[in-house]
Design brief:
Blueprint (H helix, E strand, L loop, with lengths): L21 E11 L2 E11 L25 E7 H14 L19 H19 L8 H8 L2 H9 L4 H9 L4 H4 L6 H14 L8 H51 L4 H77 L5 H70 L1 H6 L22 E4 L14 E4 L13 H5 L29
Helix pairs in contact: 1-3, 4-5, 7-9, 8-9, 9-10
Length: 510
């Protein structure tokens, strides 16, 4: 019976699939004293979105001159990817930064773990490169293009990428380029005080952000529940694969115990169960790759949305702190102006007030920018993730349809084989031959006395084995010698005495 193979299920296209020009490959382990790490080769085979000229035109005339301008290859380790992840949060606060693979302290140099991390790091870079808010970030360009000296200067600089670029260009002026130390503790104390008081600055979009936070928190709980159930399905699928293997092994052994056509059919059942075991194991792996892992990634993206909302809250808190600082300095300036002989202090306080107002204006602009960016990002998240979830569920449904069709084909092929098995009811099965129970033999004893005319002598049948409650009678040896066996063996046929008067000697009391 010919079976038609179902069409292969093609996974849906994701936005990061458009960035195939960025690859992470060739993981190599390095030993630096007691420090051991793995480096990855990052290749860029084309210009980044921020490097594309307007209208697709190449400046300078001949495009062949610039055909290799976008190619680069650098070596980066996991801590470098982590630096890029943290810098993106600082440079583009409020953006939903794609998740990065988590740290792992155990078995982080195994081949399976290194390959899994390589794939996830490549996905991270591709998502960042096509992200509308992150694709033109300076730290991304530095990560992909800069040489080792420039990159590690940017990584270790406190002032950001721009400061690191200046330090790499003019290392003699590195001291002058060092940013001045800020009053970190004083700022932290002021922000903590404003946060505890709860009297934060209000904006027209506060109600919208409260609704977004409720939506994200509820979505997080529901997605975690769905992901937990999906993990249980994958685990049960692997258990079914193991159970089908044991089931097939048992039927193979049963078929070997039968030598007729039934045994061959039972062996076919075992072979079908073996093939279904392989099919179920492959199905469980596909479920994990196409359903469980996308759901786990969805949960990480929800966490990224929470981080974006947290960055907006931090900007709001910073703006509130600046406003409180301006109010405090205004009060101080008013007191100094009213004090005779404190003109110098009043002038210094006015300059400090001016700087505080400038900082408040910058904090207000940053807060507004981050708020608008978060709104754009949440809207994009809802659109892209709704479509991505729809396609993920469709992939899962098609995967189940394909799996059940293939199972039906395997089981259906066994039906005609079992129906064609001929079983003869008159033939005793092989495993029951030799166990036939034979009834106990009987002994014919003639009636006492001579038969009259017209009366037929009927032998009396008694079992050879004595009754359970009686002992066998003692027969004299002389009478036993006169017994003649006629026809058949002594134990399998009947015994007839020559003299009808000769019989068993009655026992006393009978």
């Amino acid at each position: 019976m010919e079976t038609t193979q179902p069409p292969a299920i093609a996974s849906h296209v994701r936005p990061e699939d458009a960035a195939t020009h960025i690859t992470v490959s060739d993981p190599v382990q390095h030993q630096d004293g007691m420090n051991k790490y793995t480096s990855y080769r990052v290749d860029v085979r084309g210009p980044l979105p921020s490097e594309n000229p307007p209208n697709g035109q190449v400046v300078g005339g001949d495009p062949s001159i610039f055909q290799n301008a976008g190619y680069s290859a650098v070596l980066r380790r996991y801590s470098d990817f982590l630096w890029l992840y943290e810098r993106l949060h600082k440079e583009r606060a409020g953006a939903i930064v794609p998740p990065i693979p988590d740290k792992q302290a155990v078995a982080r140099f195994s081949a399976a773990f290194v390959e899994d991390r390589r794939v996830k790091l490549e996905t991270f870079l591709r998502r960042v490169s096509v992200h509308p808010e992150l694709c033109d970030a300076k730290c991304l360009e530095t990560f992909l293009r800069a040489d080792d000296v420039t990159f590690y200067a940017a990584k270790n600089a406190k002032g950001g990428v721009d400061t690191a670029m200046m330090m790499s260009i003019a290392p003699n002026n590195a001291t002058a380029m060092t940013p001045q130390k800020k009053e970190g503790f004083k700022k932290w104390f002021a922000e903590a005080k404003a946060s505890i008081s709860g009297d934060l600055v209000r904006s027209p979009d506060d109600d919208i952000f409260q609704e977004i936070e409720r939506y994200i928190n509820g979505l997080d709980l529901q997605m975690r529940s769905v992901a937990h159930q999906a993990s249980g399905l994958v685990r049960k699928g692997k258990e079914i694969a193991n159970g089908m293997f044991e089931f097939g092994l048992a039927f193979n052994l049963l078929g070997q115990s039968e030598a007729d056509s039934l045994g061959a059919a039972l062996s076919k059942v075992g072979e079908a169960a073996d093939s279904l075991s392989v099919l179920s194991a492959d199905h469980a792996e596909k479920e994990m790759a196409q359903f469980e892992e996308p759901l786990q990634d969805y949960i990480k993206m929800i966490h990224a949305v929470k981080l974006a909302l947290q960055r907006r809250h931090e900007m709001r808190l910073s703006y509130t702190t600046c406003l409180n600082e301006v109010e405090h300095k205004q009060t101080n300036v008013a007191k100094l102006r009213a004090t005779i002989g404190a003109e110098a202090k009043a002038y210094s306080a006015e300059m400090s007030l001016k700087r505080a107002r400038d900082a408040a204006d910058a904090a207000r602009d940053e807060f507004a920018t981050v708020s608008q960016r978060v709104l754009r990002e949440v809207d994009r998240f809802k659109r892209e993730k709704a479509d991505d979830m729809r396609k993920t569920v469709l992939d899962y449904i098609n995967l189940q349809i394909e799996y059940n069709k293939r199972m039906e084909e395997v089981w259906g092929a066994l039906v005609p084989q079992l129906e064609n098995v001929q079983i003869d009811g008159n033939v005793v099965p092989n495993n029951t031959r030799g166990n036939i129970v034979t009834p106990p033999p009987t002994v014919q004893i003639p009636q006492q006395g001579m038969p009259t005319q017209g009366q037929q002598q009927m032998p009396q049948q008694i079992p050879t084995s004595p009754p359970p409650a009686q002992q066998p009678p003692m027969i004299p040896q002389q009478q036993i010698d006169n017994v003649a066996y006629m026809g058949g063996p002594p134990m399998g046929g009947q015994v007839q005495y020559r003299d009808p008067n000769v019989g068993f000697t009655p026992m006393p009391g009978m």
